[in-house]
């Protein structure tokens, strides 16, 4: 073993983090449970994981490594117009899928559902391409703010109605690499 510290069990708290909202251990345990559900659900099928960049790249990588069913990967990049911490619901596709999803079993992997407007737009867009099935896995959600009814099949954690970073989520493109989800110290927003 190289060194005693692992990202799973003993990660130092980043100086800018106020509170840990979901720990690395909680995330990994939940992902293993979700992966077991997905393995059952897609037992006789090939699943295409569609990650919504940039935020989903971490959860997608960890989730996929717990899966035993055959998986393929594709990514979309979207940007929601709005301020740094509030989405507007207007979505622009920055990178489209490489693969044709017609007839495919598609599982969209999303980091966090806040208002749900981004995912709502994506689902409508993907449904129009004729997949055999289309499901959503969202690691986090803020249920108070969901303004649309989204069929989230696999769900990790509900987080409070506050801005969180880490495990793929950024503030001004920073903190995505943290292995946990947490809130930032107020001083970070002031600086
Ligand atoms: P929605 O369209 O309001 O559901 O927003 C979804 C997108 O907004 C997510 O994919 C994130 O990119 C971003 N987002 C929403 N809440 C947070 C947060 O607390 N921290 C970081 N990004 C967030």
Write up this protein.
The chain has 191 residues and is α/β, with parallel strands linked by helices. 23% of the residues lie in helices and 33% in strands. The strands form two sheets. Strands 4-3-2-5-6-7 form a six-stranded mixed β-sheet, with helices on both faces. It has a two-stranded antiparallel sheet with strand order 1-8. Helix 3 links the parallel strand 5 (105-113) and strand 6. Helix 1 (24-41) packs across helix 2 (57-66). The longest helix is centred in the first third of the chain and has 18 residues, at 24-41. The model is unreliable at 3-8 (pLDDT under 50). The structure holds inosinic acid. Inosinic acid (IMP) binds at residues 55, 80, 87, 111-119, 163-165, 169.
Secondary structure layout plus pairing:
Layout: E1 17-22, H1 24-41, E2 47-53, H2 57-66, E3 71-82, E4 87-95, E5 105-113, H3 117-127, E6 133-141, E7 152-158, E8 181-184, H4 186-190
Parallel strand pairs: 2-3, 2-5, 5-6, 6-7
Antiparallel strand pairs: 1-8, 3-4
Bound molecules: inosinic acid.
Q: Which characteristics define this entry?
A:
191 residues; 8 strands; disordered N terminus; binds inosinic acid
Quick structural gist:
The chain has 191 residues and is an alpha/beta fold. The chain is 23% helix and 33% strand.
Listed once per kind, the bound small molecules are: inosinic acid
Order of helices and strands: EHEHEEEHEEEH
Please work out how many helical segments DSSP would assign: 4
Q: Which sheet architecture does the biggest sheet show? A: 6 strands, mixed
Backbone CA Rg: 17 Å
SS-based class: alpha/beta
As a percent range, the share of strand residues is 25-35%
* Euclidean distance between termini CA atoms: 39 Å
Strand arrangement in the largest pleated sheet: 4-3-2-5-6-7
Number of strands: 8
Poorly predicted segments: 3-8
Shape: globular
Question: How much is the average pLDDT?
Answer: 89
DSSP helix fraction: 10-25%
């Amino acid at each position: 073993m190289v060194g005693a510290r692992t990202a799973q069990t003993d990660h130092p708290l980043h100086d800018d983090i106020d509170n840990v909202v979901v720990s690395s251990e909680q995330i990994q345990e939940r992902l293993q449970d979700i992966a077991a559900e997905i393995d059952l659900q897609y037992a006789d099928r090939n699943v295409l994981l569609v990650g919504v960049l940039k935020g989903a790249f971490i959860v997608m990588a960890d989730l996929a490594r717990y899966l035993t069913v055959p998986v393929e990967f594709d990514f979309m990049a979207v940007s929601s117009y709005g301020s740094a911490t509030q989405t507007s619901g207007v979505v622009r596709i920055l990178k489209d899928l490489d693969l044709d999803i017609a007839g495919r079993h598609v599982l969209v992997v999303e980091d966090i559902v806040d208002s749900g407007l981004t995912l709502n737009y994506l689902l409508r867009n993907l449904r129009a391409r004729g997949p055999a099935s289309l499901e959503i896995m969202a690691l986090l959600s803020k249920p108070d703010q969901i303004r649309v009814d989204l069929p989230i099949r696999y769900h990790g954690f509900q987080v409070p109605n506050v801005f969180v970073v880490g495990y793929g989520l950024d503030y001004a493109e920073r903190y995505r690499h943290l292995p946990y989800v947490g809130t930032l110290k107020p001083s970070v927003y002031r600086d």
